Amino acid sequence: MPVHNSDIADIFNNLADMLEIEGANQFRVRAYRNAARVADSHGARVQRRKTRGAEQ
Q1: Which one, 2, 32, 48, 55, has the greatest CB density within 10 A?
Q2: At what angle do helices 5-22 and 26-41 cross, to 10 degrees?
Q3: What's the pLDDT tens digit per position in 30-55?
Q4: Cβ contact 7:48 at 8 Å
Q5: Residues 5, 40: contact at Cβ < 8 Å?
Q6: CA of residue 1 relative to chain centroid, distance
Q7: What one-character-per-residue DSSP string does 1-56 give?
Q8: How far from 30 is each of 12, 18, 19, CA to CA, in Å?
Q9: How many CB atoms neighbour CB 21 within 10 A?
Q10: Residue 51: what pLDDT?
Q11: Cβ burial, residue 26 (10 Å; 0-12/13-18/19+)
């Protein structure tokens, strides 16, 4: 089952939400939100990019 960028972005946003609820450092929360934004707006599938990197 293919994982789409929007799915990865949702995961990063959920992690950011949980960290925020736990009172984590705001820079860490913002990093996860930025990762979600980048994953969602990236043209190529992030999963494929990760898989290719692991093969090298």
Answers
A1: 32
A2: 170
A3: 999 999 999 999 877 776 655 555 55
A4: no
A5: yes
A6: 18
A7: -PPPHHHHHHHHHHHHHHHHHHT--HHHHHHHHHHHHHHHH-SS-HHHHHHHHHH-
A8: 10, 12, 10
A9: 9
A10: 55
A11: exposed
Token look-up 């089952």 returns 1
How many CB atoms lie under 10 A from the CB of residue 39? 21
- Is the pLDDT reported for residue 26 higher than 50? yes
Cα 21–15–29 angle (5° rounding)? Answer: 65
At 17, give phi and psi (nearest 5°).
-60, -45
Whether residue 40 contacts residue 6, with contact meaning beta carbons closer than 8 Å, is answered with yes
Torsion sign over Cα 2, 6, 12, 18 = negative
- CA-based nearest residue to 38, from 16, 55, 53: 16
